[in-house]
Amino acid sequence: MADVTLRDVARASGCSVATVSRVLARTRPVGAETARRVREAAEALGYRPNHAARALRSRSTGTVGLVLPQITNPFYPTLVRELTHALHAEGRAVLLADCDDDPAAEAEYIADLLGRRVDALLVIPAHEERSREAVTAAAERVPLVLMDRGCGPAVADSVAVDNAAGMALVLDHLAATGRRRICFLGAAGTASAAAERRAAYAAGACALDPGASGRVALGDFSVEWGRAAVDEVWPARPDALVCANDLIAIGALQRLQQLGADVPGEVAVTGFDDIPMAALSAPGITTVRQPVAELAAEAARLLGRRLGGGSGAAVAGAGAVAGAGIGAGAGVGAGARHAIRLAPELVVRESSECGGVASVRGGVGPQRIPAP
Q1: How does pLDDT run across 110-169, given as a tens digit for each residue?
Q2: Structure-model confidence comparison of residues 315 and 217, the more confident one
Q3: In the prediction, which pLDDT does 84 show?
Q4: How far apart are the C-alpha atoms of 109 and 101, rounded to whole Å?
Q5: Strand pairing partners for 64?
Q6: d(CA 176, CA 181)
Q7: Does the model's pTM come out above 0.90?
Q8: Distance CA 302, CA 320 (A)
Q9: What percent of the chain has pLDDT over 70?
């Protein structure tokens, strides 16, 4: 059977070829009844768009490159799923690259995706400083949004959870349950999420105990480090371990159980991200939940603005606060850079409190603020 063409759909729907093209490509608004007739005709005929031909005509491939630091971190598959759904709803496909926390590999993947003519890039930087050159250069060529982490001031639009608000929720919860000898198990290095969580702990823990800011052990975002970190801090006999992510918390919990420590009676454990394993642990881990669906939706909106498909408002969520951006230079999408910080939620489980599961939301919802 010959391929069904736009002309076939136009004939079946009683519309012009131009109207059919606008409906199926979603390039311009079309009346609801007309759009319904076109879509029903396309479905009945089995029409499938020829993306290669469309790319030649429009110089747009309909693809977005996504570069991750490490897909084995359980937080990222959930984010990829939400991003795929959000971009698919706008008619865009995702090309995924995993740089395995290597900025040099990250730069190669970014160059490769640009060579494949992606329309835009989403990047979770592997390193705040060493990722900057490749990301900055890419942002001058295509619309680019940084997610979860940053890599310097005014490099590109960005969207991330409010890490400081999340850490404040954890510390307030531990204070309310009477914890005072708190230790922080975090990640070394310059990744902005690690640095922000570490700094927020140092600032907030002093209110509980002046010595708490000095009780810090730094490694990486892994289960193995969580286990090793417990051995490092356990001689200080902390009554709470604040972990910079859930993988560290899972490792810490495993080691505490090996040592025969009573969790949460003797020591509480908290994490950050709310990956699926946090709820499946025994006991379940109290953690800060990132609004992953919102994160993906806001990233898609920011890209839509730069690609010319947005409505001009980067944030559509309730409680959004608008702010002025700062100059972006003369690159692609020149104009204000925008940073969106999303409100986190504390999910209280048995690792810090025996009273069951509860949640507390921090912040005021999505906030649009000037890029730092």
Answers
A1: 999 999 889 999 999 998 889 999 999 999 999 999 999 988 877 899 999 999 999 999
A2: 217
A3: 93
A4: 12
A5: 94, 120
A6: 13
A7: no
A8: 14
A9: 83
